[in-house]
Amino acid sequence: MPVPENAGGPLFMRYQDVIVHVDAKGEQDYTGYRVRLLNSAALQMGNLALGWNPANGPTTVHTIKVYRNGEVIDVLAQAKFEVLRREDQLEAAKLDGMLTAVLHVPDLRVGDELEVAMTTTVSDPTLGRNVSGLLFLAPTPPPGRYRIELNWDKDRKPAYALTPDLAPAASVSADRVVLRMDNPPVRQPLKDAPPRLQWQRILEYSTFADWPAFSRQFAPLFTRAATLAPDSPLRKEAARIAAAHADPLERAAAALKLVQQDVRYIYVGLNGGNFTPAAADETWQRRFGDCKAKTALLLALLGELGIAAEPVIASTQGLDDGLAAHLPNAKLFDHVFVRARIGGKTYWLDGTLPPVSGPALDPVLPLRGVVPVTSEGSPILDIPWQPPTRPDEITLFDVDARAGFDKPAHITSTAIVRGLAGLQLQQQFSAVPPAQLLDAMRQRLTGDTWQTIEDVQWRYDEKAGASVLKVVGSGTVDWEGTGGGGHQLALAGGGFSPPEKRVRPPEQDQQAPWAQASNYSCYVTTLRVPTSTKPGEWTSKPGFNTRMFGRQYYRAFEFRDGAIRMVRGSRIEAREITAALARADNARIPDFDNSMAYVFHEPSDVKGRIFTGTKVPTTDEIDWLAPDVPCLPPAKAVP
């Protein structure tokens, strides 16, 4: 494509070809481009780095040329690639076996045109003759000419599908589909829409017949990997677990903990291991493995214990929304764990999680759909969502100010965190000795609020599935004078910020639903008021109970036994809301009460107006780790 005289930006793509050819051995991926370098920011295009997995096939570089004032410079005649074996994800415990070839184009200048062309052969030993993948155009490509092509040998035609925005650019014939685009416009993601609606300018292809065929492809791999040798030491481990526990769920929990605790996590993608699990005996012998290896090991133990279980393949990157509408594609997934049936219920067991995470009725990871791996083949299994019944986070703040307005208060702060975030804290805090944790918290917290830190206690409650961090000390209370000897204080964690409007740019779909991440938070503050005051001298801001944008907002106060008690809860009630509801709630935002949770002391013997009629417990009055805590209104929220 000719370079326009007014070309702006760092570069202009004179052409870019991306071609996938499907044949009897797998696929060949070709990339070729010629680019004009318009300013110095584009010179980094001369730093070429090609990555490939040698277990899947070679990469061939066809040409690297520089065009300058009518001269053609053959870069490969004067510079060579250096091939590196770099495990660049060792810090994440990953060994992927990738090779990287690097070449720095010498003497590259602004105004030059750089042309590169290469082909990579892909033939994954696990997938056999099956191939699958995605071809796409980035949302913000540089201006220029683009061609995307999928072609195939006569008897190897894959199924393919185009997102609607590519249909005008498509040309289809008997052995190929070609997409041609000149100066494609910028396509921003659909703002805050569900992941399934974020697919733009994508061509997907697959030779799997359907999702059950995809499931069947992996079944024998895990069956073989979970088959134990006659003299396998894992048989003895299973026998030990069976002797120690009579209940099947306890046996499953013990087997899971063994896999989590005694086998460290290392991703192994060497020699075709990207999709193939290591044998259970091998994993146990070397005591490390990735999610595939840990899953096979756990399946072997559960099989010995007579517990029915199967692997499930999952995506942790948000690609599992609306999976059934897409073609089967191994590249969409990055995780595998176990689904077991025990006592008539379904449990999820993940060998890669910390050993405090036992069998669960719901997956710990926020998944929408998985592929069960079975010999008969399984379709996509949708994982239903409902509002969480227990808060993901509870913050308890107990302020004992009985000594007086001008005296330091005794403060106890407790943070309860569940789910994946709680497990991350478990990994973090379990590695820190108590004395070191106390010192770190003193360094971090001592300042404006905390004057002293007396004690720091952390534990992980396996029954509640929660990290619990308790900090005890003394600190100042930010009383504000109101004149006439009065005081006011904003209780910690009690305020709500007004929600943001749900508005999309005019060029985007205005009828698309709005998505939001599941969340349930709770703040509980207890203020033990100065003993020099009387109950009738205290007032507060009103309570709060409403729902907007599919989210419940709740706040309640009570004054009892010399303590002001406040609870403030917020929970997502709908993971998606309609565009109509979003527009209606946009109009309600000006009426949203975003006042802070103020309490007021007025020493004039007025009747207290602090109480909402709802009983609110103090931070130490109930067990806040219990499955049912009063963080939301007892009745349905006001619409």
TrEMBL record:
InterPro entries according to UniProt? DUF3857, Papain-like_cys_pep_sf
The UniProt entry, under Pfam families, shows: DUF3857 (PF12969)
Q: Which ranges carry the DUF3857 domain?
A: 30-180
**Regions crossing the membrane:** none
Name of the protein this chain belongs to: Transglutaminase
Q: Which organism is it from?
A: Novosphingobium fuchskuhlense
Top-level taxonomy: Bacteria, Pseudomonadati, Pseudomonadota, Alphaproteobacteria, Sphingomonadales
